[in-house]
């Protein structure tokens, strides 16, 4: 279970992060773990695999890409270990290939929404959102980006480095400058950790602030999300859990020790209601958020459980 535990730990500590990358890493880890169980009797194999799946899913609660990837990878109908392993390996290869191809497709579809001369605002670090921005740039459009810092972990720095290296003119702002800066923006593009059946978006804390400011300034907000970022469990009434992370991400523990009456709250995600979202760009097309149920039914299946 060593490699699996290592991957689980890297997801927990955010060494592996980003809803898409977490999903791909979990699928690969489960595949390799299943292969390592090849000499076990079938009933033991089943138990170990369930434990491993739970171990991965429990690392971070919010990005539904993680339980979706695990559920899609560990599905098998075989009743013996070698055949079950073959199915799991096939599932993982398929999931990882689709996830990689999805980014290119999302880029192509989403880039249609970016026009020559546009200023695009983005938040945090989303590979799907960046794929749209890079594709528009590759098409020769003269665009620039405003990227938020994304406190507390400042994933905005990953974004600005990536855009810089690609040659895209980029301006970094602190999160609290979003509303003031919105008047310069033509389009907001963000990623997704989860999308629920009512079309609400769960994404990095502060996303809903971009959405509010965009709506006030009459600018469109589009979401870049692979179909596996939609949450089938929200069909059963389940709410997406918002991850609370440690206070040390926000303020130095030394400082906090001197402030016994101060409590720090560090929610990592927030919810943007569907009415603030213009379109969700997936690898199978651009949909209004009201079509979330259709995407869950047609591309994930209603019985997806872990
Ligand atoms: P991609 C990230 O979460 C951000 O919230 C980002 O918008 C989302 O995952 C999707 O990222 P975190 O892992 O899958 O930084 O598009 O907490 O890369």
Descriptive overview:
The protein is α/β, with parallel strands linked by helices and 306 residues long. It has helices spanning 2-12, 19-36, 42-57, 65-73, 81-111, 127-138, 156-166, 178-181, 207-216, 253-257, 292-300; strands at residues 119-122, 144-148, 170-173, 187-190, 194-195, 201-204, 220-224, 269-272, 279-282, 285-287. It folds into two domains: 2-103, translation initiation factor eif-2b, domain 1 (Four Helix Bundle (Hemerythrin (Met), subunit A), Up-down Bundle); 106-300, Rossmann fold (3-Layer(aba) Sandwich). The chain is 44% helix and 13% strand. Strands 3-2-1-4-7-9-10 form a seven-stranded mixed β-sheet, sandwiched between helices. The protein has a three-stranded antiparallel β-sheet with strand order 5-6-8, with helices on one face. α5 (81-111) crosses α6 (127-138). The longest helix is centred in the N-terminal third of the chain and has 31 residues, at 81-111. The radius of gyration is 20 Å and the shape is globular. It starts with a helix and ends in a 6-residue tail after the last helix. The chain binds 1,5-di-O-phosphono-alpha-D-ribofuranose.
């Amino acid at each position: 279970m060593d490699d699996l535990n290592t991957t689980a730990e890297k997801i927990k500590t955010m060494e592996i992060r980003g809803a898409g990358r977490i999903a791909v890493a979990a699928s690969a880890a489960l595949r390799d773990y299943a292969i390592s169980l090849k000499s076990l009797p079938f009933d033991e194999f089943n138990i170990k695999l369930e434990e491993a799946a739970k171990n991965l899913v429990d690392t971070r609660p919010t990005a539904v890409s993680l339980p979706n990837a695990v559920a899609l990878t560990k599905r098998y109908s075989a009743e013996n270990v070698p055949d079950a392993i073959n199915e799991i390996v096939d599932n993982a290869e398929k999931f990882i290939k689709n996830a990689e191809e999805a980014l290119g497709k999302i880029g192509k579809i989403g880039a249609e929404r970016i026009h020559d001369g546009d200023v695009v605002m983005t938040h945090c670090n989303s590979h799907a959102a960046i794929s749209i921005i890079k594709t528009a740039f590759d098409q020769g459009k003269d665009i620039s980006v405003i990227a938020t810092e994304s406190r507390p972990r400042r994933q905005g720095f990953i974004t600005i480095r990536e855009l810089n290296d690609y040659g895209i003119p980029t301006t970094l702002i602190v999160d609290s400058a979003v509303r003031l800066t919105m008047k310069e923006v033509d389009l907001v593009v963000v990623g997704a950790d989860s999308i629920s059946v009512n079309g609400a978006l769960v994404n990095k804390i502060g996303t809903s602030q971009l959405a509010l400011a965009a709506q006030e300034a009459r600018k469109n907000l589009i979401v870049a999300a692979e179909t596996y970022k939609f949450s089938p469990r929200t069909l059963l009434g389940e709410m997406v859990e918002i991850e609370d992370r440690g206070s040390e991400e926000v303020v130095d523990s030394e400082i906090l020790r001197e402030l016994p009456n101060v409590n720090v709250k560090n929610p990592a995600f927030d919810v943007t209601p569907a009415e603030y979202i213009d379109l969700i760009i997936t690898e199978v097309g651009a949909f209004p958020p009201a079509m979330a149920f259709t995407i869950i039914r047609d591309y994930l299946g209603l019985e997806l459980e872990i």
